[in-house]
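Appendix B, record 7
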Amino acid sequence: MPQTGNSVNLVTYAHFYTRLHMDFNAWRRRRISEPAYRWARKAMPGLSDTEREAIEAGDVWWDADLFTGDPDWNKLLAVPQATLTAAEQQFLGGPVAQLCAMLDEWDITWHQGDLPEAVWQFMREQRFFGMIIPASYGGLGFSPYAHSEVVRRISAYSITAGVTVMVPNSLGPGELLLQFGTPEQRDYWLPRLADGTEVPCFGLTSPEAGSDAASMVDTGVVCRQMVDGQEVLGIRLNWHKRYITLGPIATVLGLAFKLQDPDGLLGGAVDVGISVALVPTNTPGITIGRRHLPSMQVFQNGPNQGEDVFVPLDALIGGTEKAGHGWQMLMSALAAGRGISLPSLSAAAAVYSAHVTGMYARVRQQFGIAVGRFEGVQEKLGRLAGNAYLVEAARRLTCAALNQGHKPAVVSAIMKYHATERMREAVNDAMDVHGGKAVIDGPSNYLGSLYRALPIAITVEGANILTRCLIIFGQGAIRAHPYLMQEVLALGDEDDERGLQIFHDVFWRHLGHSAKNGLRAWGRAWTGGVLARAPSSGPIARQYRRLGRYASAFALVADVAMGTLGGALKRREMLSARLGDILAELYLLSAVLKRWEDEGRCHADLPLVQWCMEDGCARLETRFDQVLANLPKRPLAWLLRAIVLPVRLNRGPSDALTRECADLLLAPSPTRDRLTANLQRGEGDDVLAQLERAFGLVNAVQPLHDKLKREGVRDWREAHRGGAITDEQARQIEAAEEAVRRVVAVDDFEPGAFARRAG
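Structure tokens (predicted):
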């Protein structure tokens, strides 16, 4: 009997608590969730079709883990590092090496005005334009990492050749055909693109519409037209495009335009939307304009126009089923391509700048010592070494994601902006150290072309200002946040009751998530990250904890910014940009730690890891400080500061650490070899070979100079005459000095060399 009584009591209590929970849940919905839902629907700005399609393009990856505020580092470390197949390695050692040996950027730029015909023919024969096209269609079928490696190596020799190879493999029609083309389109076009029979370009940018695709005035109208005596259903196109890479020599144009169907021939809406078609450039009505000259780079680029150009409906990539889905298709292709092309070029430029600047700073002397020993120069060299390590690490991690089949749109945007900005920083540092050597143009200037090309990388594939201010955080917040996308979809649900219920469920989970991050951020900030997770107790365990601390702070600050500003955050571009910078820095520093683990935890490389972390943590705290200083709800901002940034602890790398990283560039070592691996090396007696020879000779004779200095002898010739050094040692020193003289020399020209030649 007592047991029965206890059972009844338990059932009664369970019923009571269930009813209490239901009542409380109903109260929460009525008093909190529903007002929040109504407010959010009014406050959230409407998404344009192009914005929605951009947000939905691609997928999320490690960026989503960072947005949780408590990233699982073991998950990152479990990502297989990007590797090359035997065929890919053979291609890099064979055709890529042969192509690089054919490239003379000075001759290409100032004499040829284009790649020589022999280079074009070699690239066609070796399928350089078909790297991403599967072998079944006649392409090379390379992985994203192999694609990246090819672009990286070629770009170090020639920007012209690098851009020429990258465009067909990332932003050309090939990627769109692979993802969205019909079987018939793939069967016809892909083999012809792979072997270079067709040279592709893609026309998106017009004078009226650059970043704002919705303003595009290029049109296509569905209509019927007589062709060879038969009535054909097709599209009449009118367009004006510019800045089109490979445009002047392309045989087929991928064209983005706004499709209209005024007569309902497709059976749908009149305004179909942005669509993409493949148009042979010999089609009547097409005008190929004269060439552009982008920052004195001579890769093929120019405008084109079309007036009443008629193409059949099967010119639409993906057929009529993909009509109106062009922007989504483009964003999906860009989500992968943007993570390869410019990051590869940027990694090449950053590593190349560190490589040549370290050698030049070692062999060039002022006041009797190598300029690389001056602390002002060492500051530049240390940053060059750190940026080279970081950009290459981020490239490899991004390629690892792409190799696994991810299309991380937010990560690709991070790489586009931050890789090119670090490249700009690196090349500027290299120019500063080289001084007049890099200012005077000519065949022996190995930095000038790279410096002139910087604005191109900053501008194309989404201008950097736009990418930073609108895309990284704007897209990342919706896609990578664990709950925000569900809330946005609920707010846009046409069924008000269903939308409210979904919003209510997600909203409270979101609040719980924010509360946990608040406690986590507070605990980690006030203990210096001690409470954060780390995957090991090795020498960089502290660095994992530091990133864990900033990740939780970011998740909390992002939630508060979005919760208090709502849709207005979209217009507060400086705030959004800074939040994006924090997310990006977390990603870049994750890549640094991952690289160190993947390369076998080399103790000698720790200065580079530490420099990147100190520099990155200082950048993070600066951005947090700027966000908190500009949040409009000041009492809340003060509270947030007390939680996540009670005191500024990171001011950047110490002078001693910077000097240590600088020294890594000034002498041969395994760490230096890893930092500059698989990059351009000198051949024969070219300018890089001269620099490398001088670098080796100067380091080889340094012990002799040190010996003479200890003995108080300033002139080695005097020491030679006195018998303090042998004839062979004297010859070594003389050879080193002659090598240095050749390196520091600059080009000069006859006055008539600058006169324009007729034609």
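Remarks on this record: The mean pLDDT is 90. Strands lie at 200-203, 219-227, 230-245, 252-260, 271-280, 286-288, 301-312, 365-366, 369-370.
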